[in-house]
Amino acid sequence: MMFGAKRFLDTDIEDWHIACWEWLLLHLGGVAAVRRRSLVLPTPAFFPKIEAEGHARAEAVLERVKMLMGMSDWPCLLMTRQITNAQIGEFTVLRPTKGIAATFGFFGNEAAVTYDPQLVSQPYKIIATFAHELAHYRLHDVLEKPPGADVEPQLEELATEMAVAFHGFALMSANSAFEFQQTQDFGRQGWRSSFSGYLSEDSWIFALAVFLALRGDEPGEARKHLKDHLAKKLDSAWKRLAAAPDLLQRLREAPVRAS
């Protein structure tokens, strides 16, 4: 083609994705660390049935997500967002909380996640949300800001989502990123849509494709568990990576900071 292979993402977004992967690989253990993670799927093998309800159910989900992220031994409190006035002065949130379902911060000297109890009834969303908050925890001691965050602080949240993908949760997060459904209430009919997280569906799918490629996996199994339109997007993202092998080679050769 005269102008090169068609990109799946806009040029500047793709460039940032690759730079962010390099940043993650540098600080989180390189490609070897990616290969130690599994692609997390919505199956009983990854999420066995939980009999508990309410807050106990949320605690069980958090522990499962921690285990899948290799963070089982990272202590972390879980609290609902209805924090008492006495607690507000002690809980230090590390980012703005308006309009989001959960936060990560410190309650005294202890790491803590707060969450909206309504998440308990939304399996994909609570898993993706907890993975995001735990990614904040994982990145807390990384002093170097992600690419572009010195100029645009919002890129720190996007980089945290990329860390979610790094740990194998891109498929779960892609499936929860956008929901559209028909509603009916007292004889009235309508539609409702909602967005979750910070990355777009296309960005989640590209991050998923990079994760699979770095692991040496094919996309077939992931396609089975994606929403239909996302499975088609994964095909397109996979074609883009195949047409630009230099992108993956750049990541495979990315430096890794000694722990």
The major pleated sheet works out as: 4 strands, mixed
- What's the helical proportion of residues? 40-55%
Percent of residues in beta strands: 5-15%
Q: What's the average pLDDT?
A: 86
Tell me the number of helical segments per DSSP (H or I, 4 or more residues long).
11
Shape: globular
SSE arrangement, N to C: HHHEHEEEHHHEEHHHH
Quickly count the domains.
1
Evaluate the radius of gyration. 19 Å
Strands ordered across the widest β-sheet:
1-4-3-2
Distance between the termini: 44 Å
**Poorly predicted residue ranges:** 83-89, 178-196
Quaternary structure state of the chains depicted: single chain
Structural class: alpha+beta
Quantity of strands, as a count? 6
